[in-house]
Amino acid sequence: MNFDFIMLKVLGKGGVILLIGTFIFLVSYKNSEKLFQWIEDQTFGARDFILDKCELLFFKIEPQKVTWYLMVLTFGGTALLFSIFAFMGFYKMGGLFAIIFLIFSWKIPKPIMSYLVERRITKFQNQFIDALNLMSSGLRAGLSLPQAFGLVVEELPNPISQEFSLVLSQNRLGVSLDECLENLYKRIDNEDVQMFVSSINILRETGGNLSETFDTIAEIVRERVRLKQKIDTYTAQARTQGVILCLMPIVILFVFSASDPETMSKMFSNPLGIFAIIVSFGLVFLGGFVMSKIIKIKA
Q: If phi over 0 gives left and psi between -120 and 50 gives alpha, with beta otherwise, what is residue 189?
């Protein structure tokens, strides 16, 4: 005889629900610290992550506004998406897509903010060559190192002028120049900046020609940027193909749903069809992740 049938007959429907609920409670209670830590990471952790990235982007925003934006994006967007599908009569399809949207809308701000910070660092690196040449010329003209930083602030656009302006502001407030440069490296996590900061700290202690060192660093950065641009050119086609391949199943699903909703509704009403759609979406995003790792080459 079926085990589930025996349990249902002995305990009753309420007893089975109570037993399952007790099991879930005991497991949750035993792992309560990990559970609460996970909840905090997914809520306040996401907000703090966004606030930290906004600080790196020199963008000021109140923590309460970030919380409200996250709530509106996730729950508001989910409710709107489900309402659209419900208005068309696809309740199960709407529920499925609403759950998927709820998960991804809560996760998507982190990679977006990381992308914005990486784009800022890339822009900084492209401007860094001109900054090094400008500082080298200033040092040859007899300027001090802070005065050479001031030339960068005056002559070059953001983001490099913002970063060196912050270095000078911290130095005027009494922070040592070594610590100001270390803070610059923490904000711009880049090998070129690390080499720049280390060179200044070493030459200020041991003595040496900073202008020649800056010229050498500029040449190294120029070659690295050139190599990175060449790699981006060679992998551009692969990136485009990856995006198209990931979006194609989703577009086909919407096209079939619009052209033949009666047939597609059976797929969303059958548990096997729902499971197949979930697995398909998972495989699509897994394939996209693998392709992004393959074509990502570090210069």
A: beta
Tokens 């996401």: give the residue. 46
Long-range Cβ pairs for the range 72-80 (8 Å, 24+):
73/105, 73/109, 74/102, 74/105, 74/106, 75/102, 77/101, 77/105, 78/102, 78/105
Using the 8-state DSSP alphabet, how is residue 187 labeled?
H
Per-residue b or e along 248-260, where b marks 16 or more CB atoms closer than 10 Å to that residue's CB: eeeeebeeebeee
Residue 92: CB atoms within 10 A of its CB come to 15
Amino acid making up residue 127:
Q
User: pLDDT truncated to tens, each residue of the chain (299 aa)?
Assistant: 444 445 445 555 556 566 666 767 676 667 666 655 555 555 556 788 888 898 888 888 888 888 888 888 887 888 888 888 777 776 777 777 788 788 788 788 888 999 999 999 989 988 999 999 999 999 998 888 899 999 999 999 989 999 999 999 999 998 998 899 999 999 998 888 998 999 888 888 887 788 888 899 889 888 888 888 888 887 888 788 888 888 888 888 778 877 877 777 777 777 777 778 778 888 888 888 888 777 776 65
Name residue 166's amino acid: L
**Most distant CA pair in the chain: distance in Å?**
94
Structure tokens at 277: 């759609």
Sign of CA dihedral 113, 115, 119, 121: positive
Q: Is 181 helix (H, G, I), strand (E, B) or coil?
A: helix
Two structure tokens written together for 221: 């950065």
DSSP 20-75: HHHHHHHHHHHTHHHHHHHHHHHTHHHHHHHHHHHHHTT----HHHHHHHHHIIII
